[in-house]
């Protein structure tokens, strides 16, 4: 449910072009007509209705949709009131705020149809990324305990027992009061972490995972890039395409040695796919427009 909601931001915002542009071009035209019901509740930026991401015991889409259908009328009304404070809502949301079954059912059906059209074709790749993140977190727990996990959660994370500080779009405090904090790695979360607006609900922290440019390309295209450049060099190009980074960061992102990262970046620079400049004691690598076109598999 979180991926469904956050993907709606990625679908309409021209940010993260390296990672999401190809998916946006492919998935956007497939969005069903009733996707407009979702975009009414998920504006291009800012607050989206909390009830769209219910906490469930099960982890399937069916579990999330069933929880959405059972949303209490009070919660529907409360969340829509918050949303109405920031933007004008269309008339159909009145029936939703009143908890009318036909309105709630139509909304749940719209979520399912959007998922099947725009996310299901890529779901194996998305869950593969999330699985690797969970494995990484498991290794961090084994290596340094939960303190290590919290410190490594996001570049803005600062853990000073008993407070975790993170970059966030607005000033907000979440007091656990003895409750656990559910960490949710998200593929379509970009930039800063996010959480529910209502702090009285089960505490959850959704944070972005590292992405691989070209993830939504057909398998043949992805294989061709590795065949053209070599597997390691293709990974280095994708790592630099994700965001400008130092040689040390390239090595970390690609799980290679520092000399290998430096050698591959130099080869890519010679081919005009990346540029490099001195940044203090480090060298900062950035992808060029030619490198972006190669990753995206688009026209020259």
How would you concisely characterize the structure shown here?
This is ArsR family transcriptional regulator. This protein has 300 residues and is mainly alpha-helical.
Question: What can you tell me about this protein's structure?
Answer:
The protein has 300 residues and is mainly alpha-helical. The chain folds into 3 domains: 122 residues, no CATH class; 77 residues, no CATH class; 78 residues, Arc Repressor Mutant, subunit A (Orthogonal Bundle). The chain is 52% helix and 10% strand. The mean pLDDT is 88.
Break the fold down into its secondary structure elements and pairings:
Elements: H1 2-12, H2 17-27, H3 35-41, H4 61-69, H5 73-84, H6 93-97, H7 101-119, H8 123-151, E1 158-160, E2 163-165, E3 182-186, E4 204-208, H9 219-229, H10 231-242, E5 245-246, H11 247-254, H12 258-270, E6 274-279, E7 282-287, H13 289-296
Parallel strand pairs: 3-4
Antiparallel strand pairs: 1-2, 5-7, 6-7
Helix pairs in contact: 4-7, 9-10, 10-11, 10-12, 11-12
Key features of this structure:
single chain; about 50% helix; transcription regulation; about 300 residues; 13 helices; 3-stranded antiparallel β-sheet; WH_DNA-bd_sf; DNA-binding
Write down the secondary-structure element order.
HHHHHHHHEEEEHHEHHEEH
Helix content: 40-55%
For the largest beta sheet, what order do the strands appear in spatially? 5-7-6
Unreliable runs: none
Number of strands: 7
Report the total helices.
Answer: 13
How many distinct folded domains?
3
- Nearest-integer average pLDDT: 88
Q: Compute the separation of the termini in Å.
A: 37 Å
Strand content: 5-15%
Instruction: Characterize the main sheet.
Output: 3 strands, antiparallel
Approximate shape: globular
| Helix/strand class | mainly alpha
Radius of gyration: 21 Å
């Amino acid at each position: 449910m979180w991926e469904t909601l956050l993907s709606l931001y990625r679908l309409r915002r021209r940010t993260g072009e390296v990672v999401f542009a190809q998916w946006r071009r492919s998935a956007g035209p497939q969005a069903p007509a009733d996707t407009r019901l979702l975009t009414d509740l998920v504006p291009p930026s800012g607050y989206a209705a909390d009830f769209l991401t219910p906490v469930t015991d099960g982890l399937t889409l069916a579990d999330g949709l069933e929880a959405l259908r059972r949303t209490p009328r009070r919660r529907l009304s409360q969340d829509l009131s918050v949303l109405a404070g920031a933007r004008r809502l269309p008339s159909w949301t009145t029936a939703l705020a009143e908890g009318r079954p036909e309105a709630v059912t139509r909304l749940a059906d719209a979520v399912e149809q959007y998922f099947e059209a725009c996310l299901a074709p890529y779901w194996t790749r998305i869950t593969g990324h999330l699985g690797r993140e969970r494995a990484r977190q498991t290794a961090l727990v084994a290596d340094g305990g939960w303190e290590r996990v919290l410190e490594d959660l996001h570049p803005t994370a600062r853990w000073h027992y008993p407070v975790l500080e993170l970059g966030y779009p607005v000033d907000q405090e979440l007091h656990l009061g003895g409750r656990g904090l559910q960490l949710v790695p998200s593929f379509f979360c970009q930039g800063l972490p996010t959480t529910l607006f209502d702090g009285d609900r089960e505490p959850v922290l959704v944070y972005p995972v590292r992405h691989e440019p070209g993830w939504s390309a057909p398998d043949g295209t992805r294989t061709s890039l590795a065949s053209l450049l070599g597997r390691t060099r293709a990974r280095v190009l994708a790592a630099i395409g994700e965001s400008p980074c130092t040689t040390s960061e390239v090595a970390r992102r690609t799980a290679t040695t520092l000399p290998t990262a430096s050698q591959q970046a130099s080869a890519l620079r010679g081919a005009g796919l990346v540029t490099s400049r001195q940044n203090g004691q480090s060298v900062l690598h950035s992808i060029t427009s030619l490198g972006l076109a190669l990753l995206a598999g688009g026209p020259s």
